[in-house]
Structures are given as C-alpha cells and as structure tokens.
Fold this protein.
Amino acid sequence: DSGVTQTPKHLITATGQRVTLRCSPRSGDLSVYWYQQSLDQGLQFLIQYYNGEERAKGNILERFSAQQFPDLHSELNLSSLELGDSALYFCASSAPGPPEKLFFGSGTQLSVL
Amino acid sequence: AQKVTQAQTEISVVEKEDVTLDCVYETRDTTYYLFWYKQPPSGELVFLIRRNSFDEQNEISGRYSWNFQKSTSSFNFTITASQVVDSAVYFCALSGYSSNTGKLIFGQGTTLQVKP
C-alpha cells in the first residue's frame, strides 16, 4: 500500500459529461501529481501541485483542471468528456526535497462511452 | 527536452531465464534522477529504484540489478532467474533536478511475460 488514496476506482460516463477524480496524498507529502495512462500516449504527466499551488503543467487539456485543497487532497476535474479521454488516471505524491520517488495511488479507470 | 526510450515493447522468457530491460534517456540537465517502476496486472505503479546522475555504481537488490552508464545514457534493468510473478509492465523514468518539480518523464514501458 503506497499510502496514496484515489477514488473512485472505476468511473463510467458518457461523452459530454463532467467528472471529478479525488486523491489523498501520503501523510506529510506536500506535492501531488496527476498522470494519465492510455494505450496510445503511455504515461503522461498532467499537472503538479505543491502545498496548494500549481508547480508544473504538462500535457493537460484545457477541458481538464485540478486543484489542491488546504488539507492537501487534490481533485482532477475532467469536463466535456470525449471518447479519447478514456484512460487510467493516476495520482502520486512525494515529500519535499530533491526529486524523491513518487508514490502512486491505484488509479481511477475512466471509461467514456 | 527530456526523453526516455524503452525500445523493447514486449519480452517473453521462460521461468529461471535472466532478462535485461533496456532504457536510454536524453536530458540536458547535469543533475538528474532515474527510476524504474513496475506495473503488475493489478494496475498500480510500484517503485523499484531511484539513482542520481552522480552515482554510477551498479546496484543489486535480490534478483534485481541495475546498470547505469552515463557515457551511453543508459539505465538497464536485469532480472536474474525470472519468476512468473515478475510478469508486469516495467517503466523507466527520468526526473531533471533543474526543473525542481520532481515530475517524472516515463518511457513507453516494456511488457515482460515470464512463462512457467
């Protein structure tokens, strides 16, 4: 168990809908990362938050947004969903300092029908 | 730009065989970190190892060993006496220290199938 909790584990929705994925980092970790894993794109970095503030942005679509709350949990919001958004979405957390190892949650499998 | 290449898409071996997974990386950073993660069929990503660019000493952990060669920008992973439980997708990843973000750039992954 990595200590990173992601909910829900599975999500099935329709095109055009909006969903929210939730992540609770390991106790004490200030950084939260979101990754998308799909068959064609592999593991792609989406966005990172550090102690409530956006730290780095990757290949995140404008239809997607994220935030990190004062209790350090994070949410990834996906809107106007398309079939191509179907993927496994991972959250990870790490401790402050030099690039530490990332601890990954078990992921949320999103299926857009 | 940073890039990680895992040229082997799939590898199939018979149990007890040794197998090496290749990883080649590109970065302009002088300080960087390299990682290997394992993704078993259950789907989670499991951390295996982290090495920094100043430490080229090879590392061994049980049946796992890693060969870091800065001269060839490679960080290869060897499993000795493979077992069926080693069947998984293995990802090599790179993190540039200068970015100060800790984000990982992953390779495309190598699917390892170990047959009994």
User: Anything to note?
Assistant: The mean pLDDT of chain B is 91. Chain B touches chain A at residues 33, 35, 37, 42-47, 50, 52, 91, 95-97, 99, 101-109 (CB under 8 Å). The two ends of chain B are 41 Å apart (CA to CA).
